[in-house]
Design goal:
Blueprint (H helix, E strand, L loop, with lengths): L1 H13 L32 E9 L5 E11 L2 E9 L8 E9 L2 E8 L5 E9 L2 E8 L4 E8 L1
Antiparallel strand pairs: 1-2, 1-8, 2-3, 3-4, 4-5, 5-6, 6-7, 7-8
Length: 146
């Protein structure tokens, strides 16, 4: 639990944001194929991904394109968002961790102003879960290795 709290604090301070839908305020690896399972219990998540997000608060939906790099249990990378005119930003930086089949990461906008926290589960080449944004938006997301 302390790892999640520590990660959450890093995300708040360092900021990570995938997408932030315009609900008001806002403050605040390369395409490799799946590899043998790592000690974390999942295959290495390094690769390119595509998918969607949907706001549960009426903010609509959009597309996610991500490049992820896994080193040990650390996850890093970048994301591009599109398809939703209410987005507060369209690109950001990923930082997080992988534990077993659980993924926790944050995305911070390129400007460093906006952030979104993600929690998800890895199942084969798919990662899906929930997100919560610094502007109060929340919803679901799913990406699949391309």
């Amino acid at each position: 639990m302390s790892r999640i709290v520590t990660l959450s604090r890093r995300v708040l301070v360092g900021g990570m944001v995938l997408f932030l839908l315009g609900c008001g305020g806002g403050g605040n690896g390369g395409g490799s194929s799946p590899t043998a399972p790592t000690s974390s219990g999942t295959g290495n998540l390094t690769g390119t991904y595509a998918g969607t997000f949907t706001s549960s608060l009426g903010g609509g939906s959009g597309n996610i394109d991500a490049t992820l790099t896994q080193s040990g249990n650390r996850l890093s990378g970048s994301v591009q968002l599109s398809g939703n005119p209410r987005l507060l930003f369209t690109s950001g930086t990923v930082s997080g961790t992988v534990e077993g089949t659980s993924v926790v990461f944050g995305v911070v906008s390129t400007s460093g102003v906006h952030r979104v926290n993600f929690q998800g589960t890895v199942s084969g080449t798919r990662i899906s879960g929930t997100y919560s944004a610094s502007n109060g938006d929340a919803g679901t997301w799913s990406i699949t290795r391309t």
